[in-house]
Specification:
Number of strands: 2
Strand content: under 5%
Largest sheet: 2 strands, antiparallel
Distance between the termini: 43 Å
Helix content: 40-55%
Length: about 160
């Protein structure tokens, strides 16, 4: 069972009564919702009854949590629209800066300017360097602050 606020939701009951659960494009609807497509657009695009249908489904299946971790997608929409609307240069730069501070898990990371990767590698023992060369896995003590999952194991 998932919870919606403080109210418990029976997943099996939800699935029996939900028009999105039985919709041919269910996966597309869920993917678009998690990618920050507005519920109003989903209603129009997929012929759903109303926005409450989308919200009910999203709460029952825990899609809001996935959506919140996907803040980068919302920022990508803003950045992509920069050439289509009247925006200031500072608002585009602010969106890009925000985007750069969110890692692949949706976490806001402030870069730590005191970390010098070269000094960290110099601190590694010969065995740690060999292990890294063979497995591309950094030692546990190696700071991961500000690193995305793609760069966590890169020098």
């Amino acid at each position: 069972m998932r919870t919606s606020g403080t109210k418990k939701v029976s997943l099996s009951r939800h699935q029996r009564n939900c028009s999105i659960c039985s919709h041919a494009a269910r996966a597309d609807i869920e993917r678009e919702f998690v990618a920050w497509c507005s519920p109003s657009m989903l209603v129009q695009q997929f012929g759903l009854a109303d926005r409450s249908t989308v919200y009910r489904h999203a709460h029952a299946l825990g899609l809001f949590e996935q959506r919140q971790r996907n803040v980068r997608a919302a920022l990508e929409h803003i950045i992509e629209k920069a050439s289509d609307v009247e925006v200031t240069a500072s608002s585009v730069v602010a969106a890009i800066q925000a985007y750069a501070k969110i890692n692949s898990r949706g976490q806001w990371i402030e870069p730590d300017e005191k970390i010098d990767p070269k000094k960290l590698f110099e601190r590694m023992t010969h065995k740690e360097l060999e292990d890294y060369a063979q497995t591309a896995v950094l030692p546990e003590w190696f700071p991961r602050i500000g690193l995305t999952s793609e760069s966590a194991n890169a020098p």
